[in-house]
Amino acid sequence: MEFDNFFTSVQDASWWKQHKTFIFQSxxxxxxxxxxxxxxxxxxxxxxxxxxxxxxxSDQLWQSMLGQSSTFWVTLSQGTTxxxxxxxxxxxxxxxxxKGPHRLVVWINGKDAVDIKVDAHIAQxxxxxxxxxxHFGFLAEFINGSKMTSGQLSCVESIVRTMRQLxxxxxxxxxxxxxxxxxxxxxxxQAQFIxxxxxxxxxxxxxxxxxxxxxxxxxxxWDKVCxxxxxxxxxxxxxxxxxxxxxxxxxxxxxxxxxxLKKLSFGLxxxxxxxxxxxxxxxxxxxxxxxxLYQADCRLKLGGSDAHILDWLxxxxxx
Length: 319
What we know:
Shape: globular
Helix content: 55-70%
Distance between the termini: 46 Å
């Protein structure tokens, strides 16, 4: 299913009930969009590792309490990546054939996934960058529950024309912000959003200083740029960085090909990738950092908002 068709389908509440399995494919992790989808499903979610779920934990898939249905967010861990064809195919065949009492939501990152074929009873959605105002309009209506006003439409037209395309999570942040910005503030917001993204060089440097543990340079630059973006943006930014670093370390430990490492290295420091800087970290450490980021995200969603919401993440990284 194409991205715009997905937004048309989800307007019908029964669409969610018609499918047992939902497969979303994207070239990059999309944590902000994933969170929005789960909110729209309005169902409690259990995160489950694919290997555990389909082997030792398989009973979970077939048992239910008093006929109640659960939703499993299925993650693909080490040894079950898309590029590991044998293991991935084995697990994916189980996912495709599942017809138990629960729902499965599977997110597949990587361009290798686009050739996967599924049966008609499975909802499969391919996520792409937002390159047109029309596509953004579908996303904004999905998130905010209403069509854009003429002022919002003009604002988005200028942003898309200047930036040419938005990543899925950039578009989610833009749509969320448009939902709370007043008509009188739109012109200033438009200029600020475009100016913020003109500073991407600073953001690459920020990531470099973070992963190379250059504490002094990091906080000097952080002090300059932190107020230029919302807390929502920083959550998505660090989520993407930590996810890539985690996947890169797994790939390094499994002697992955140079081609795969090159794909995973985008946005990570050269020294971190090619000069063994990644050896300073372990996968467990990155999981701990991501857990702190998740806690910050939860506080934000519960109404907490201040300049120090990410302090524990930074403290843990540099300690």
